[in-house]
Amino acid sequence: MSESEAAIAQPVSTELPLRTQPDDSTFDIVATYRDLLASDPDLTKPVAAIESLIALLNTVPSTTVYETLDTVKSHSDLLIASVENPLPLQAGTDLFLQYLVASLKQQDGSFDAVRQHLLRNGRLFASRAIAARNGIAEAGWRFVREGKCVLTHGASRSVTGLLERAAKNSEGKFRVVYVRDEVRAEESDRVVKELRSKGIPVAEIPEAAVAHVMGLLRQVHMVFTGAEAVTQNGGIISRIGTYQIAKLAAQAKIPFYVAAETHKFVRKFPLDQRDIGYQQEVLDFSATAPSKQPKDAVDYTPPELISNLVTENGVHLPGYVFEQLLDIYGSLNG
Amino acid sequence: MAAEAGQPAPKSEAPAEKKDQGDQKKGAKDQSKAPAAVVAASEGGEKKLSNAELKKKAKEEKAARRAAAKVTQPQPPASAPGQGDSAKGGKSKPKQDGPQAGAQHGKTPAPRSAAPMTAAAPKEAKPSVPECFSHLAMAKGVNLTHADKDVHPAVLLLGQQMSTMAISDSTTRLEATLLAFKKLLSLEHTSNKRLQNQVIDSYTTPHGTTLSRHFTSHVLNPQIVYLTACRPMCFSMGNAIRWLKLQISKIDIDMADSDAKKLLCEAIDSFIHERITLADLVIVNTAADMIAQDDVILTYAHHHLVERALLKAKASGKRFKVILVDDPFERVGLDHVKKLAAAGIPVAYSPDFGALRTNLQESTTVLVAAEAMFSNGAMYARAGTCDVATAAFDLGMRVTSLCETINFTERVSIDSLTYNEIDPERNTDEEFRLLFDTTRDKSISAVVTELGICSAKSVPAILRKLEEL
């Protein structure tokens, strides 16, 4: 890990406007984050980021409030700079910082109390995140009624959770069309196997068949997908391919539902595909070599294509995201 | 590339006029050429004059004005046919020739000089607005001699500026209004001493009542009535006045007058600072950040927020082009284009909507500013904005609108006729023009406010948030 750390920390620390260099150079936030993500398959990226920041607080000695906030900020920046797609992490780190500031205000600035509380409840955020996923399943499973057919893709744990919850109630009475991703055959196989093990009849189709399948009258009744991040206008940043499925669904007048936890809400307002928050090289023109595709590419699905967001707080219109963010942060300037 | 045609030629009148007033008006703003003349004339008397002499002088002046008005009365249609009816009482000479001359003939030589020509023939016929449009208001202007005697000179001046469109965009009007109201409360008596016999002095609460109960109904309301008569209030003014009245009503009745006034003045100052000055700064920075390298930005007519955002983006080293489509009825974009070109931004200028689609196809982003936002997400902006936004939306482009949250209103509008204003300069028997139009929320990609970027649909969420604050 040391060489990757050096590779990451070096260019990053030069360009970040750090007021003070963190004196706890021994703590490697990026490694912690990756370890957490690898060790616990239930962890989403924002929650893993929050957990790593709590682990950071564990290591730094109790200092003044501002120093700690500063440390948290600088490590958040480090962490965000270490990944390609910053939005999911930003959702987590922003939320944590806001939580810190808010609880400090409540406790009249008694920083130690907040810190102790955080450390004692180190897994608080993780357990809340799992609870949120169950909440989504509870809020959304009634969409999947008897005789319905759900189209989905990717490996969102919220979606599979929701489908499993629906299967508990009406086993074998609804069907799933799963859009396979041949680049990630292994992942697709895993998800399909998981669904079949719950007694859900699954039909696998290639990505190229989506429009055709949606055009088969009343064969697909709804689309469910997950999201990496939910942007403040109610759109989603999600696995590449989501946008085209959403467009096809809109064209076929099939409702498009997104299952996402509220901790994925992020203060980012993409205006279109050009604006997903980082540089993504999908176009690789070459006359000789085969084109390279970025790993974990994402696309942006605008809110107009989304029928409802299924969150742990219930089913909402895309406009809900903005209200929530405004409530949490007060203003939307990062 | 840059614009050249249609130079505002007759600007030369203005400076000359300014010069001979220059020594007289001290407190008055410099945009306020003509109305200032009236105020300044009354103000201009020597200090040494006694009250009685002053009174006499004022009477003489009034008589002179009336006489002058009689002489000029046949003329009004030549400059503004729409104002014929309101000018019955006679407009004073300087008012006729002041900003109107500058504003009308200066900015749009061609269409304006043509319109009055045709309208001049049926001169006496009062332009009538069809029944179905009778709810639409128009900036009429109120003759100074007809104004309520309680109207403060600063407000009188402002009303004239508004009715002549010397101050036209909503935020500037709001700021000027608040500053004028502040003068109502101002504590300086010294400079106003010589005005005491004809206009109200800065406010002192009468015995037996309190500021919080007396000020709004007896002092503030006449000012508002007068300003509304000059030109219908814009939404931001409505919002701010509601806020101001609330602040006044909150004042403790036991508080000393001077303390209360000071408190209110400070409140107004911080309101202007937070909701206008800072808000503008944040919006400009956000909008400048949104401009990407090599963007081609299409913008419509002129708004100071758009101008500042473009200049700011340029100053931060971004390389981009601008296509400016001007308002064909009021070429406010000409000066704008020159400023942009002077800053080194390549600008293409289009005087009207001809080739709008072609221009849009060459650009990547549309950047406009809103006059107000309705709570259903509709944008109220200069007439023509809707055309640009709809065409851009049709081509799948981004349409970004800039707007301070003070301009957000809880009202709802789905068409351009429920709320609008008639252009006072283009209102004849045959036709009239509207000043604004309404753009539906679906053709707006993003609204940039001081609270951040939001979608047009999120306007009610922001309004709710503002209520909490």
From TrEMBL, chain A:
Self-association and partners: Component of the translation initiation factor 2B (eIF2B) complex which is a heterodecamer of two sets of five different subunits: alpha, beta, gamma, delta and epsilon. Subunits alpha, beta and delta comprise a regulatory subcomplex and subunits epsilon and gamma comprise a catalytic subcomplex. Within the complex, the hexameric regulatory complex resides at the center, with the two heterodimeric catalytic subcomplexes bound on opposite sides.
Location in the cell: Cytoplasm, Cytosol
Protein name: Translation initiation factor eIF2B subunit alpha
Pfam family, one: IF-2B
Keyword Cytoplasm (UniProt): yes
Species: Trichoderma lentiforme
PANTHER family named among the record's database cross-references: TRANSLATION INITIATION FACTOR EIF-2B SUBUNIT ALPHA (PTHR45860)
Protein origin, superkingdom: Eukaryota
A Gene Ontology cellular-component term: cytosol
One of the record's GO molecular function terms: translation initiation factor activity
Signal peptide from the UniProt entry: none
Family statement drawn from the similarity comment of this UniProt entry: Belongs to the eIF-2B alpha/beta/delta subunits family.
Keyword line: Cytoplasm, Initiation factor, Protein biosynthesis
UniProtKB/TrEMBL annotation, chain B:
Keywords, comma-separated and alphabetical: Cytoplasm, Initiation factor, Protein biosynthesis
Signal peptide: none
Location(s) in or outside the cell: Cytoplasm, Cytosol
Main subcellular location: cytoplasm
Residues spanning the membrane: none
Single GO term (MF): translation initiation factor activity
Name the record gives this protein: Translation initiation factor eIF2B subunit delta
Origin species: Trichoderma lentiforme
